């Protein structure tokens, strides 16, 4: 059999010691969808979409062993038929006054989201563990209600599913999962997005077009030949009952590279845009070269006065482009190393139920619009370790001397990790031999499917998991692990999220960041960043990404034990009355949520363990899992953020522990940025002093980094150092190291300078050839979206093509 491995070289042959399985096959719809996102805003409708009539959202092939999951995946998304039935039924409800998104304006009500409402843990455990019925399925619907002077988003619960002519569905405001009790409603500050530009920002820009031509050789007028862009802060200022914008000018890219966020121009203006009537909006001033002008007239007068200092603009050039440049490195044109899986996948997948098993692990995969990929019911050696592990929210909080950098604190689930989890690049994002899965999400009466946007693969680390040598032998064990990965490109940043599973029972989650930084204009920004190009400052910012880890160690009732390595002076029975300076272990159990918010201790001295006090090992120690930072972590530096108020209290500590409640499923809400003083989910309200000793616990962990961009971040930040991770590893959980079970180890006995015995413990020893072919063919198959129309829905012809697409 032939295993095709992609590499950007001429064909060659590898000799590998094993049997070759079938090559991984992938779905191949012919056309590619080019849904190109611009800026950091939610798209109201997709553009430039193409589909292929033979492609289904569930069409995935893999060389993984096909199995059937023991239970239905109750966290999996809705089917095409379920989504279509919900959308159709909603349009039949006259009180909702809905308009199809494609023809809607800023004063219409539309459907923003339809996805599965994840069932309550209480109901799921009854199904998984006690032979109870599968939880009823309901849809989580978000309406974008703009046919009012008070536009708002409305969360609804619709169901039960599926909706048929014989069923009796209903909708109710979705309020119980949120701390804010306003019938699932939160205001929409972006309801007039188009009007803001056409009737406000572009008109303001036109009033100084002569100045922007002089300073930047360009204009921003909303015309096709614009060379400047305008965008600003997020979230908007929301103090004292007013809605305030700060906006600035950016040079537009002059080629295909996405360089806009590193081309700031240093001219800012402030607006009061309270309400929906543009005639009541007010321009409140201009800022240039750290001088504030209260009116356009004052700014114009200063500009045309003698002595006005004009600063140089940031302009695009090769420095901002990501293609290869500079002298080619020695030997770099030779074939680079690559991994192969000569026996095919050594894991099993139920593609329909998104269920994976590998060695002694099993888990279900779930995907949502807001937070992307999550993992449920993670079991090790048949025992559940984690009920849920998944992203909750991602924050990028900036600081700077100018009002844009000082006011930006992106809460990225507003834009959504799901819509921007694009197809992975085979051979680069993941190995070519990985198993690739699709992801789907609802947009504008259609379901988008991103082909091959999740990958599952085994990998051999660049170091062994075990090694030891003596004068008689040397032993070493391969460090093979399984990865589930996705990449979401949200605005300028690409976030790579990897869930890993290891031979010693360790479970890990790691996030890496790459892409273009959002830079500041260099003038007067010395206290907030390095000057990294002619007129550019690397704007300092914190990345904080919150993950939920709902542990169930040998049952749902667990405790948190803190064990600290502490210096101590102690006298021993054998020390002859002399005190000795040494160290000791100090152990404590968290008693309540009042103690449940803390940071990693200095010197890494405090260890956190999730234990079950009702389960001891044969030596009397509590069985559990240790939680430890694996690649650096960070919480928010800013205290009592002016930008966030109560919208992101989850970012304030490294670790936070609460009692599990079905009404507290998530640390944040996608629309927290729309009302920062009274957000839908105020995480601080989770902490009300409840006991934590031997109860169902949730650990909320923050990954992140303090990012001060330097010249090495141009053109893009690199994954090498922009990374953060955490691991959960067995602690007194098993009788020994479970990685001893693998046969992928070797012991070489030797004496008198030569080997006397080589033990390979039953590893495959066959030799086979693997042709290595060019990667170009694989990359030319890159596809993008598949779009299925949900209203009106025709199951015999579901595919939707936007007008003007070829």
From TrEMBL:
<dbReference type="InterPro" id="IPR016182">
    <property type="entry name" value="Cu_amine_oxidase_N-reg"/>
</dbReference>
<feature type="domain" description="Copper amine oxidase catalytic">
    <location>
        <begin position="339"/>
        <end position="739"/>
    </location>
</feature>
<dbReference type="Pfam" id="PF01179">
    <property type="entry name" value="Cu_amine_oxid"/>
</dbReference>
<keyword id="KW-0186">Copper</keyword>
<dbReference type="Pfam" id="PF02727">
    <property type="entry name" value="Cu_amine_oxidN2"/>
</dbReference>
<feature type="domain" description="DUF1965">
    <location>
        <begin position="261"/>
        <end position="327"/>
    </location>
</feature>
<dbReference type="InterPro" id="IPR015800">
    <property type="entry name" value="Cu_amine_oxidase_N2"/>
</dbReference>
<dbReference type="GO" id="GO:0005886">
    <property type="term" value="C:plasma membrane"/>
</dbReference>
<feature type="active site" description="Proton acceptor">
    <location>
        <position position="412"/>
    </location>
</feature>
<comment type="similarity">
    <text>Belongs to the copper/topaquinone oxidase family.</text>
</comment>
<dbReference type="GO" id="GO:0009308">
    <property type="term" value="P:amine metabolic process"/>
</dbReference>
<dbReference type="Pfam" id="PF09248">
    <property type="entry name" value="DUF1965"/>
</dbReference>
<keyword id="KW-0801">TPQ</keyword>
<protein>
    <recommendedName>
        <fullName>Amine oxidase</fullName>
        <ecNumber>1.4.3.-</ecNumber>
    </recommendedName>
</protein>
<dbReference type="InterPro" id="IPR015798">
    <property type="entry name" value="Cu_amine_oxidase_C"/>
</dbReference>
<keyword id="KW-0560">Oxidoreductase</keyword>
<keyword id="KW-0732">Signal</keyword>
<dbReference type="GO" id="GO:0048038">
    <property type="term" value="F:quinone binding"/>
</dbReference>
<feature type="active site" description="Schiff-base intermediate with substrate; via topaquinone">
    <location>
        <position position="493"/>
    </location>
</feature>
<dbReference type="GO" id="GO:0008131">
    <property type="term" value="F:primary methylamine oxidase activity"/>
</dbReference>
<feature type="signal peptide">
    <location>
        <begin position="1"/>
        <end position="25"/>
    </location>
</feature>
<feature type="domain" description="Copper amine oxidase N2-terminal">
    <location>
        <begin position="104"/>
        <end position="163"/>
    </location>
</feature>
<dbReference type="InterPro" id="IPR015328">
    <property type="entry name" value="DUF1965"/>
</dbReference>
<keyword id="KW-0479">Metal-binding</keyword>
<dbReference type="InterPro" id="IPR036460">
    <property type="entry name" value="Cu_amine_oxidase_C_sf"/>
</dbReference>
<dbReference type="GO" id="GO:0005507">
    <property type="term" value="F:copper ion binding"/>
</dbReference>
<feature type="modified residue" description="2',4',5'-topaquinone">
    <location>
        <position position="493"/>
    </location>
</feature>
<dbReference type="InterPro" id="IPR000269">
    <property type="entry name" value="Cu_amine_oxidase"/>
</dbReference>
